[in-house]
Amino acid sequence: MLFRFEATGTLWIRDDWPEVLGGHFQTVLAVRVAGSVAGQFAFVEERREATLPLNAPGRLTWMSFVRLGAEHILGGPDHLLFLAALLALARGWWTTVTIVTGFTVAHSLTLSLAVLGWVDVPSRLVEPLIAVSIVWVAVENLVARAPAGRRGLAAVLFGLVHGLGFAGGLMELGLPHEALIRALLGFNIGVELGQIAFVVVVLPVLVWLAKRRRFSGLPKALSAIVALFGVVWFVERIL
Asked: What is the DSSP string of 89-117?
């Protein structure tokens, strides 16, 4: 979302769009003062309000794009649940690294192509496809005999779709051409850092619980919950 206006003082904004468009919706705000980007925000569930002093605009730095990328993935439950479903049956760090690397390479590719204008896929197609990817992987966990063996391929194929979703969050800032490369690199690194943080924190807990007899069915239960969320998001997004 992009606002352009001339003003002084302090800008206060509250994001209520998710109450209208559904919990999957995420607002990205860029504020321009005197033709320069003074600030940008990615609103997440825990932070729906923001303030910005308009009489002291700052310049978007490389680190601000890193922060925006991290906030985008950590504030996007669809991407995180897809990762959780991908890794629900993973056992061992090598399998995990293979899956995460495939997902990273794939979404970095389409993110770059979309931001540079070489690929243009409407969000009305991308967002339902992201929901389909979540349902597909989660249901595969439930019904396939050996889904872990195909996880690398799923991570790459669906990673291409998720990269287009990441690109939407960056392109909405309306950045000038000269800032695209800096923004692309910083945003992509931020996405990877957020992804790594999620995997490092969540995966060991899942593996530890799954090894306990009482929680041995946790991967299946988690997959069923993820599939349900994916179906709900798919219906919301096609409507």
From this structure: T--SHHHHHHHHHHHHHHHHHHHHHHHTT
